[in-house]
Amino acid sequence: MTKRIPVSFIFLLLFRLPILSSPSTAEELNPLRDARHLGVVPFGDGKMGILGQPDSGPDGGPVQLSELDLESRAWGDSRIVIQNLPPLESLEILSPKGSDEIWMLTVEPGGEGIHLLNLRQSGNRGQSWSSPQTLSEKNQPYSIAWTMLRSTGGAYIGLVDKDDAFEIIEYDDTDSNEKADASQNRASSPILIARDEGAVDMYFTRADQPRRYRRVRLASEGGIHMEWLNLPSAVTGESPERTADITSLADGRMVAVGNDNVLRTGELTIRFSYDGGKTWPDRRILDDHTPRAESRLFVDKESRYHIFHLRGDVLRHTIVGDDWALEPTRLHTQPRLANVVPPLDWEDQ
Questions:
Q1: Could you give the dihedral angle defined by the CA atoms of residues 19, 316, 34 and 95, in that order, rounded to the nearest 10 degrees?
Q2: Phi and psi dihedrals of 194, rounded to 5?
Q3: In 10 A of CB 124, how many CB atoms?
Q4: Are 144 and 138 in contact (CB under 8 A)?
């Protein structure tokens, strides 16, 4: 007489046995999985250079550069470019247009609480780096809020300290020296950094007037302009704490991406404006459950939108094509997102 195995026992085996699979995602193969801070610089052949400092403890560690293919999301060459840096407070990357140089800006802790803003330059995709140049010394910690290349060479560097004071440093690469501080003011942290062609707009709120914003415009050819204005809720949402990124297209449109809290659901959205940013009628939700998103946006020569954004503490790279099909990939876990600069040889969009 043949004994029958109870069906309940079969189900028990199925649910108790582990399902084995091999790692295949970019996140699982990420050589910078535990890096502190992150710099992102697009190369001109469809690859992205990702720079970070592995979290190796209180003494810091090396800075590592890895290449990521934007199409296949596969990681390529990975190498250590700088040995034994102290734990970085902040890190940003710039790439001068028409050059193969990479500029790495780091805020490093110094003696007695002094923090230094250092610049290192490299050619040939970070194969070799120059000795650091000290651009500025401050008496309290701060982070790099944004960077913008000057049309006459060098760069503007926007800093924000722990007390929400912001400062703009003008760096001239011809004499490798810091010039005068371009501006200094105190407000709540910037909620929106708009990088237009040749200008940077910083928007600040006032505690007593949460719907009113101060715009500070810094042009690449020089000059700072401040004004008060009311931004449309389509851009700012109901919460001043979210961050966004804006870029201009060749046809005059403006594109904004950010965490839109108008409906208090935390959607990551992309919007379009046809009148210089006064109104934003076109809106698409990219993700409907994003409690916090720090986003960086750029457009490639095929008019695809590349969005690097944080969802919680997870960095994701999302490509938005003509059919609005999303291709998200979880790349890295880290607390903040560094600058995304224009590709070296992609056409201006």
A1: 150
A2: -105, 115
A3: 9
A4: no
Contacts of 209-214 with CB under 8 Å at 24 or more apart are 210/240, 214/187
DSSP string, 9-73: HHHHHHHHSPPP----STTTT-TTTTEEEEEEEE-TTSEEEEEEEE---TT-EEEEEEEEETTT-
User: Structural domains in the chain?
Assistant: 31-333 (2.120.10.10)
Kindly report, residue by residue over 55-93, the tens digit of the pLDDT.
656 777 777 777 877 777 777 777 777 777 777 777 777
Are 235 and 271 contacting, i.e. CB atoms less than 8 angstroms apart? yes
pTM of structure:
0.58
User: What CA dihedral angle connects 283, 243, 25 and 73, to 10 degrees?
Assistant: 70
Distances in whole angstroms, Cα of residue 224 to Cα of each of 158, 184, 217, 304: 13, 11, 6, 32
The span from the CA of 340 to the CA of 9, in Å, is: 55
Q: What is the largest CA-CA distance in the chain?
A: 95
Query: What is the C-alpha to C-alpha distance for residues 305 and 269, in angstroms, rounded to an integer?
Result: 12
Confidence class for position 11, pLDDT limits 50, 70, 90: very low
